[in-house]
Amino acid sequence: MKKVVVIGNGMVGYKFCEKFVASEKFNDYKLIVFGEEPRRAYDRVHLSEFYDGKTAEDLSMSTASWYEENNIDLHISEMITEINREHKTVANHRGDTYSYDYLVLATGSSAFVPPIEGVDKEGVFVYRTIEDLEATEAYAKKLKAQGKTEAAVLGGGLLGLEAANAVKNLGLNAHVVEFAPRLMPRQLDKGASDMLQAKIESLGLQVHLSKQTKFIQGKKAIEGLQYIDDTELKVDMLVVSAGIRPRDEVAKEAGLAVGTRGGIVVNQQMQTSDESIYAIGECALLNSMIYGLVAPGYDMAEIAVDQITGGTSEMPEYIDMSTQLKLIGTEVASFGDALNEAKKEIDEITYENKRKGVYKKINVSKDGTKLLGGILVGDSSDYNSLFQIYINGLKLPEEPEDLILGSRGADGGALLGDVMDLPDDAQICSCESVTKGQICGAIESGEANDLGEVISCTKAGTGCGGCKPMVKDLVNATLTSLGKEVKDNICEHFDYNRQELYDIIKVKGYRTYDEVLNAYGKSDGCEVCKPVIASIMASLYADTANEEIAIQDSNDRFLANIQRNGTYSVVPRIPGGEITPEKLIVLGEVGKKYDLYTKITGGQRVDFFGARLDQLPLIWKDLIDHGFESGHAYGKSLRTVKSCVGSTWCRYGMDESVSFAIELEERYKGLRSPHKIKGGVSGCIRECAEARCKDFGVIAVEGGWNLYVCGNGGANPRHAELLAEQIDNETVIKYIDRFLMYYIRTAAPLERTAKWLDNLEGGIEYLKEVVVDDKLQLAEELENEMAKLVDSFQCEWTQAIQDEEIMKRFNHFVNSDDTDDNLVFVPLRDQKMPQHWK
Amino acid sequence: MQNSKSMEEILEIYKTTSLESVKVWFEAAKVEDFPKNGGACVKYKGKQIAVFNFERKNAWYACQNVCPHKMEMVLSRGMIGDHSGIPKVACPMHKKTFSLESGENLNGDLAAIATYPVKVEDGTVFIGFEE
């Protein structure tokens, strides 16, 4: 068995192992991997997500057991300091030696820190590893505590902008300082850079171009940047992201050939100047270039595996550096020769729309037959199609400008024609080098039956994810061509989507989950179909969540929101956010009595946290005795209707927003739906109730109310769209009744109204036809269904505390009155919070 | 508050028990104390055990109540069902699913949970332990 030692456990080093494991000859080799970082290889491309709450584990490329399962020895926190080529051994920092038959250098790169005076000052960081991010985060926290807020990022390239976004997410004011006269100088032209700059400045980041830093101001810690042109920028922190330097020091020490500006020289077989040593990824100097992207690094890993196992494949002379990414919420893509570096005779076609913040440029050969490269900023939805045309040398339309202009309003597929017309060897996923033939073949051979299975067997779409829409189109088209139906079944137990199940249950009048499962499903069901059917029955029959508790979603089963340590939160309804001082005192008393962490919510009510399961009925009994009822904060149902104070008090108010919000909240409370629903009512166009961020929002205007629908906050904020103008209270209610019932009938499980509208053919115009013009002649039926639900409302907590059977549910143990002794709380600002796990 | 347990300390008391190695059959509760096609939590010598009644196929399963994802005592409050015929429970916190036969995490790479044998005699539910 031959020994292969891999130095470096980054993305490319990991990919090498993964490709090796997949090789037929894997069993003839033993892999020993060294990583100097304290954790297994992680996804550095998505590093900034670390500040969005992703953990190091989420970013990890593999599970802890993966290496062991594949019999790979992984040594982390171990730095290789010496290669002895004569004896074919490597030694770590402790002097332990390991022998090798083949050695693979995947040492990657380090952040390049330019030799500026003062870069060693406190508060200067680089952006490369999770440890760097942790150090930056800790420093940012310290700054904020001192009221300091300004942070600069040195470098306006791809990584620099990522770093700037990360700094902004830390709550600091981010300044991007770039030496070149434009952002991302390697990928973008001036027009694209201007558009990107305008976009990111509108998000509160500041961009300083053509600035060369002379030295860093400050005594011990950084206080500012002094530029060469005698201007300055006062900042409290600096993140340097000015490029990368290949890690070639061990290779150099061992006498391997390295480039004059660094990088381990390799040939097309990825071999270094020593034939048993390979170098891959950002440490390798191939074609006199360092390739700082993941896709070519992965290709190098594949070539090295093939070469070591006796294959003959080589890296191509030309390596594609196309990229598509989202930077600070802005889509940016660049492909082929975007800057015409080959200095060919070309025609540039540009489209610029400042209002929408979109810039598109393509380079077309003089004879109009070839697409050579291009740039997209603000809207990269055409990237996949353009890239396919470019990389496969496909024929261009008669008027090449149609490539960026003609596709307006159409999806990417239309631009390319039919995805199935692509040649079989067309590369669809460039991160994982997956071709159209492999994707379609996986389905044709029966190896995969749907998108998920195609992704898991080909790995397409698991890198940057940009190709996923095209992979999905190919999967669906292949399934259709094989005569298989493309279905959005809710789960493995039902061959139906939610709308079909809704109709089935309604027509057959089923009242229990088992009836539906026995007649239309199979096996024992699961955590997906159970709550979907519970929700459908609630929408059809006004059932509360106290029916059939075992099929209710986790929160509905205990009529409360399960929180971080397995305790629950309690939210009584406060319609429209209006509350008397007496009732407010009651809430204070209840919070105090049960020692609950108390907070005002975004929906204008009060949330109590830290209630044990067994305390829930006691707390609710107290609340109900004082006139409160369930706020349904735990349900996929109406949450709140938020209001501003309106014309009752406000000198600008056009109408009584509070009164109307209360009326709407009372009307739709308890309504179960495919996802949660929120409403808002504003008394004038100043919109203090943020009604347009809600599933339904009403705003008072001259002559009535404007009704907006299908907005939401959350991960993908959306403003609601105008459904009807200047209508009276009665008409508002009529339209909301119709709109909500139509949504409840037709949406997919857990599909918010905004997403539902996106998927509704014909969009808002079609919705207007259904709701306002009654094109489907459904209006009366929808209104009657809603009226029945409104009339049958019951407070499910009142129901619960009056029923001894239901109350049994709230004991932690079935065989003991003890409570969960696993709960530990720690103090927090005069209240308490769950203890963090060590 | 300082003497709270570490993750390892919490997990180490839960060991998968095979039918052959059962030394103690602990009388947990009556069949009707458990929800149909759902679960409840049983306390046994400092352990929290989730017990599930698959009434549809007349089968019972038991496992540790603590979810290895975030170490909370919650699995008994999860929904049950099957994945390609394998009986499973979905944690109510983040819907991580575990086989109730092998304990394996079916939709991720978490550590397997410990499972325990269950028997029902004369309407009483017993859980098998090694000690």
Description:
- The complex is a heterodimer of chains A (about 850) and B (about 130).
- Chain A is about 30% helix and about 20% strand.
- Chain A is α/β, with parallel strands linked by helices.
- In chain A, strand 21 and strand 22 form a beta hairpin.
- In chain A, helix 1 packs across helix 8.
- With about 130 residues, chain B is mostly beta strands.
- Chain B contains 1 helix and 12 strands, in the order H-E-E-E-E-E-E-E-E-E-E-E-E.
- In chain B, the strands form 4 sheets. Chain B has a 4-stranded antiparallel beta sheet with strand order 2-3-4-10, with no helix packed on it. In chain B, strands 1-12-11 form a 3-stranded antiparallel beta sheet, with no helix packed on it.
- In chain B, strand 11 and strand 12 (about 125-130) form a beta hairpin.
- Classes of the chains: A alpha/beta (about 850), B mainly beta (about 130).
- The interface of A and B includes residues 64, 493, 530, 553 and 816 of A.
- Chain A: Belongs to the nitrite and sulfite reductase 4Fe-4S domain family.
- Chain A: Its cofactor is FAD; [4Fe-4S] cluster; [2Fe-2S] cluster; siroheme.
- Chain A: InterPro entries: BFD-like_2Fe2S-bd_dom, BFD-like_2Fe2S-bd_dom_sf, FAD/NAD-bd_sf, FAD/NAD-binding_dom, FAD/NAD-linked_Rdtase_dimer_sf, NasD-like, NiRdtase/SiRdtase_haem-b_fer, Nit/Sulf_reduc_fer-like_dom_sf.
Provide a compact summary of the structure.
Chain A: Residues 635-773 form the Nitrite/sulphite reductase 4Fe-4S domain. The complex is a heterodimer of chains A (838) and B (131). By secondary structure, chain A is of the alpha/beta class.
Topology, please?
The complex is a heterodimer of chains A (838) and B (131).
Chain A: E1 2-7, H1 11-22, E2 29-34, H2 56-59, H3 64-69, E3 73-75, E4 80-84, E5 89-92, E6 97-99, E7 102-105, E8 109-111, E9 124-126, H4 130-145, E10 150-154, H5 158-169, E11 173-177, H6 190-202, E12 206-208, E13 213-217, E14 224-227, E15 232-234, E16 237-240, E17 244-246, H7 249-253, E18 264-265, E19 277-279, E20 284-285, H8 294-308, E21 323-327, E22 330-336, E23 346-353, E24 358-365, E25 371-377, H9 383-391, H10 412-416, E26 427-429, E27 434-435, H11 436-444, H12 451-458, H13 468-481, H14 498-508, H15 513-520, H16 529-541, H17 554-557, E28 561-562, E29 568-570, H18 581-593, E30 597-600, E31 606-611, H19 616-625, E32 638-643, H20 657-668, E33 677-682, E34 696-701, E35 704-709, E36 721-727, H21 729-746, H22 753-759, H23 763-771, H24 779-791, H25 796-801, H26 804-807, E37 825-828, E38 831-834
Parallel strand pairs in A: 1-2, 1-7, 2-3, 7-19, 9-16, 10-11, 10-16, 11-12, 18-20, 32-33, 33-34
Antiparallel strand pairs in A: 4-5, 5-6, 8-17, 13-14, 14-15, 21-22, 22-25, 23-24, 24-25, 26-27, 28-29, 29-31, 30-31, 34-35, 35-36, 37-38
Helix pairs in contact in A: 1-8, 11-13, 14-16, 21-24
Chain B: H1 7-11, E1 24-30, E2 38-44, E3 47-54, E4 59-64, E5 66-67, E6 72-73, E7 79-83, E8 86-90, E9 97-99, E10 115-116, E11 118-121, E12 124-129
Antiparallel strand pairs in B: 1-12, 2-3, 3-4, 4-10, 5-6, 7-8, 8-9, 11-12
Pfam families (chain A): Fer2_BFD (PF04324), NIR_SIR (PF01077), NIR_SIR_ferr (PF03460), Pyr_redox_2 (PF07992), Rubredoxin_C (PF18267)
Family (chain A): Belongs to the nitrite and sulfite reductase 4Fe-4S domain family.
Domain FAD/NAD(P)-binding (chain A): 2-301
